[in-house]
Amino acid sequence: MYNEKKKKNKNSIVIFISIFLIVIAGLFYSLKLNRKMTTIEAYLKDISVLIQKVVLYPFTALNKEKDIDLSDSYLIQKNINSSLEKEIEELKETLKLNSTFTEYKPVNATVLSRNKSYWFNTITIDKGKKSGIKEGMAVVSKGGLIGKISKVSNYSSEIKLITSDDLNYKISVSITTGSEDTYAILNGYDKKTNTTLVTGVDKNININIGDVVLTSGLGDLFPRGIYIGRVSKIESDKYNLSKKLNVETSADFSNIHYVTILKENK
Questions:
Q1: What share of the chain is helix, strand, coil (3-state, %, to 5)?
Q2: Cβ distance 139 to 259 under 8 Å?
Q3: Are 195 and 248 in contact (CB under 8 A)?
Q4: Where are the alpha helices (DSSP H) in 84-219?
Q5: At 175, is the secondary structure helix, strand, or coil?
Q6: Is 0.85 surpassed by the pTM of this model?
Q7: In this predicted model, what pLDDT tens digit does every residue of 224-241 receive, in sequence order?
Q8: What whole-number distance in Å separates Cα of residue 149 and Cα of residue 261?
Q9: Distance CA 147, CA 259 (A)
Q10: Number of helices and strands (H, E) in the chain?
């Protein structure tokens, strides 16, 4: 009798561990795929986000009261972790950024995680459907455009960065050349030079180093006029039919902690 009971308990533990491993494996698998999340996947991701928040709260909690200076929050926490000073300064810059997008209701969010294998492809933030976040919304940081919302669950979202290696992820941009705008496509990222790549520029159009690159607003993927960066290199394609540009961004894609989602005012 005792042996049978012991065997049942052991079987229950094995079953529980097996289910747990399957759930975790399924969660990580779903995050790697370039597709919409199922209801179950979204639910599992919300659970993982909740766990992360509980675990990380003592180390990353910031005072969000509007009437309280964030520098006071820093003074309280500086003895916990000196590296938080940089993060708080970044949050201040993000909050200042809110006033520059009057057509949109900015929603600030904190980066929860990044997959090391896909570091420049996606990041996960702590805001989702419950905060009014939807797929396709533009996401900016203090340095300008960083990407768009690609997946959403109730309490978290995934951002596809403009540095993604997805060849189908094309962004229409405009290059300010003097008093005129030239339209082209941003697609790709050069890790060696830390610059985004712009292609499809007519070889007869005069482009200069330092010209500003903005979102064009074409295709309704991103609002018009969001800053991306400045032209840092110009070269011809291999057929000498068009120009290829390297664009240096102000955003540090290796080190993103806080972002702002541009939610349309309605």
A1: 35, 35, 35
A2: yes
A3: yes
A4: 84-97
A5: strand
A6: no
A7: 889 999 999 999 988 888
A8: 8
A9: 10
A10: 4, 12
